Each structure stands twice: as C-alpha cells, then as structure tokens.
C-alpha cells in the first residue's frame, strides 16, 4: 500500500474505507493506539490486533446515506472520533460545524450527532472502558 504522507507510526488511525485496511498499515500503529474504522462489523483482520490496540467502529457510510449526505462521511467520522478520543464535547463540535459548514447544515449536524452516539468501542483485551 502506498502511503500518502510521512506519518509511519501514528498513535491514532482513521480508516475511512475497508479497501484501505492492510496488515502493513495496522502494524505501524503504536502499541495501545486507537484505530477508528468506517465499517458495520469488525473485520477478521482486526481480531489479531485486539490485544495491542483499541478498536472503534462506526458505519459512517450508512449514517450519511440515511440522512441525505450520500457518500460524504467526513462529519460522521468527526463525531465518532471525537467521542472515542474524549477531548471534545458534542456541543462544542456542533458549534464548530455551524461555523464552518453551510451546505446541508442540518444533515451534517445530524450525522455528527448520530455517529457520536453510535460509535462502538472495542477496548484492548484486559482494559476496561467507561
């Protein structure tokens, strides 16, 4: 797989398409890192990483299509990532979206909220998440 940037060992990795997932990509994530995947179920390939990584899933594609954004998943991914990262509250994200997005604002806000609520976290084995 050809990487498009100079980052080789990220702490966090967002995979926006199952077509992009590979052992080479996953092996570069730092131990105890976080992987957010746009998918409706945990791919078998990720089973081997449950010991060393925190995994999270969001079906951003389904959310975006359901509410009228088509294949545009960016806002849904943002909502899911911010929820599992824990740094930003939903209200702050909503304000940021209102300030930066004008096209289909209500749909983008709904995508943000739904992904924030629906993201599923698979903590590393032996680790408890609240």
What secondary-structure arrangement, pairings included, does this model have?
Layout: E1 12-15, H1 23-27, E2 34-38, H2 44-47, E3 54-58, H3 60-66, H4 74-85, H5 90-100, H6 105-118, E4 120-122
Parallel strand pairs: 1-2, 2-3
Antiparallel strand pairs: 3-4
Helix pairs in contact: 4-6, 5-6
Structure overview:
This protein is of the alpha/beta class and 130 residues long. 41% of the residues lie in helices and 13% in strands. The protein has helices spanning 23-27, 44-47, 60-66, 74-85, 90-100, 105-118; strands spanning 12-15, 34-38, 54-58, 120-122. It is globular, with a radius of gyration of 15 Å.
Index terms:
alpha/beta; 130 residues; Pyruvate-ferredoxin Oxidoreductase, domain 3
* Structural shape: globular
Oligomeric description of these chains: single chain
- Distance from N terminus to C terminus (CA atoms, Å) equals 35 Å
What's the CATH first level?
A: Alpha Beta
Q: What does the average pLDDT come to? A: 89
Which class best fits the helix and strand makeup?
A: alpha/beta
* Helical proportion, percent range: 40-55%
- Biggest β-sheet description: 4 strands, mixed
| Beta strand % | 5-15%
CATH homologous superfamily designation: Pyruvate-ferredoxin oxidoreductase, PFOR, domain III
How many β strands by DSSP? 4
Please report the number of helical segments.
6
Summarize it:
This protein has 130 residues and is an alpha/beta fold. The protein is 41% helix and 13% strand. The protein has a single domain (12-120), classed as 3-Layer(aba) Sandwich (Pyruvate-ferredoxin Oxidoreductase, domain 3), CATH 3.40.920.10.
């Amino acid at each position: 797989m050809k990487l498009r940037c100079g980052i080789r060992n990220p702490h966090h990795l967002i995979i926006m398409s199952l077509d992009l997932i590979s052992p080479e990509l996953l092996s570069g994530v730092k131990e105890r890192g976080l992987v957010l995947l746009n998918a409706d179920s945990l791919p078998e390939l990720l089973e081997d990483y449950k010991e060393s990584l925190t995994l999270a899933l969001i079906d951003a594609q389904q959310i975006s299509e359901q509410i009228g954004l088509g294949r545009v998943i960016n806002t849904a991914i943002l909502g899911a990532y911010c929820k599992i990262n824990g740094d930003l509250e939903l209200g702050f994200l909503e304000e940021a979206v209102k300030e930066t997005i004008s096209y289909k604002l209500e749909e983008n806000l709904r995508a943000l909220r739904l992904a924030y609520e629906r993201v599923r976290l698979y903590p590393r084995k032996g680790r408890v998440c609240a």
